[in-house]
Amino acid sequence: xxSLIINGLEVSVEEGTTxxxxxxxxxxxxxxxxxxEGLSPxxxxxxxxxxIGEGPKAKLVSSCTYPAEQGLRVRTASSRVVNARxxxxxxxxxxxxxxxxxxxxAAAHDVRQQRFKQEDEDCILCGLCTRMCEExxxxxxxxxxxRGENRDLGTPFDVRSEECRLCGxxxxxxxxxxxxxxxxxxxxxxxxxxxxxxxxxxxxxxFDDMMCYMDPCVACEQETE
Amino acid sequence: xxTDDVAGIIEKRRDDRGSLIYILExxxxxxxxxxxxxxxxxxxxTGRSLVDIYxxxxxxxxxxxxxxxxxxxxxxxxxxxxxxxAPIIAEEFERQLGIAAGETTTDREFTLxxxxxxxxxxxxxxxxxxxxxxxxxxxxTVKKIIQKATVGLxxxxxxxxxxxxPVEVSCPRCNHTLMNPEHLIDxxxxxxxxxxxxxxxxxxxxxxxxxxxxxESEFEIPEDTVVHLFCPHCHAELIGATDCVECGAPMVPMIxxxxxxxxxxxxxxxxxxxxxxxxxxx
Lengths: 225, 282
Ligand code: FES
Ligand code: FES
What we know:
The complex is a heterodimer.
Chain A: E1 2-6, E2 9-13, H1 19-26, E3 49-52, E4 59-62, E5 73-75, H2 79-95, H3 100-108, H4 128-136, E6 143-145, E7 152-154, H5 169-173, H6 218-224
Helix pairs in contact in A: 2-3
Chain B: H1 2-12, H2 19-31, H3 36-46, H4 50-59, E1 71-76, H5 79-83, H6 86-97, E2 110-115, E3 127-129, E4 132-134, H7 139-151, E5 165-166, E6 169-170, E7 179-185, E8 188-197, E9 200-206, E10 209-210, E11 215-217, E12 228-230, E13 251-256, E14 260-265, E15 273-277
Parallel strand pairs in B: 1-2
Antiparallel strand pairs in B: 1-3, 3-4, 5-10, 6-13, 7-8, 8-9, 8-12, 9-11, 13-14, 14-15
Helix pairs in contact in B: 1-2, 1-3
Bound molecules: FE2/S2 (inorganic) cluster (2 copies).
């Protein structure tokens, strides 16, 4: 067991516990975006920053990837943390303003404006979808491609991957594209891409044990018509 | 048949640690780019997922997923070349070839790419065409370089020149001499560099006689190992953009006193080398 101090409260946790989990255990809220239970932590969004250490050595780390250390002092809501978090949210808003998840997080942290050049990406490279695809669906159909400015997500060669079972898990976890999956109201949909998919239950015989995350289900919608 | 070639390459690279990059390099050396079926074959044969392989292939600039032209023009935009107005040179190439950097002309003759440092900063701005270094390039020489490439640079290459004469070389990065008058090989001052291979670092003394392959080193370097050579003064790796025509290992560039560039193969025992004496005339 490792004991550490979070916001002045001492807590003992198993070795290998992350700061985020330890803080959750004590009930201190830490906002997260690229973290999801059941998927390996990735540390992409930096929203979960906390401050560790004392005095001039204090630094900001992402709590979802930082393992608890014996005697560590952690602050989850110091002014430095709050400022950093707001900055991260502003940056996220600048990248991907249409994401409901980001908008909600921004509102909850009192960020009403961002000061950067407004962009209109539909991906914030949080990697949730690839981890979902690989770790939960065991498919590895999509992944990161390229690097730097040109980094993006998709299937190899941009063609439909043989590994893809069309489970929709990637869309289900995506913080940026939930709005798109409003097949019922196509005018509101951001991309309407889901309307063109053939979901797993249609191609059932191809996959046994399939899981489906389509919500609302495109196939069911089509059938009831 | 591609799959067979790929199978051979993978078999050869079986024991290499982190062999994926080697495999891709070999495939690229063979076809000049990474064909889609070859990548699929690699995925199948190595049991890695195609996504990962594709990720690596798109991550590194030296891999290309599109067929390249017959001539590859690399314009250096590294810091040293950049401040000597390399961007203007890159633009000039784009204009004259009618393509943007990273593209290939429709007749599949030229591929233009920009790179970040070719390891010969002291001679910048540098343009490398099919492994030939052009130094101190300016806008006016661009046209001549293209012409030269069309005619075929291989004809310019000084190959198989077995005349034995000593060369005096310096580091292409810091221009510090690499000659070591205290250590004689073939009764001439030797070229002193640092070699690293595996987990070993050792000094290496190379004969400065062009055409002699005598080497002495602190540790025995096994035949066939590809070593990384470093300048003992600025500690920069001596590495260029070309690969050995004989064995495919990276070539090691050094500046020849009096102008020009000599390149030797980094594989122990391989005799691949190239010498371009004098300011390559353009
Ligand atoms: S939740 Fe920790 S970095 Fe995204
Ligand atoms: S910057 Fe061009 S060769 Fe180093």
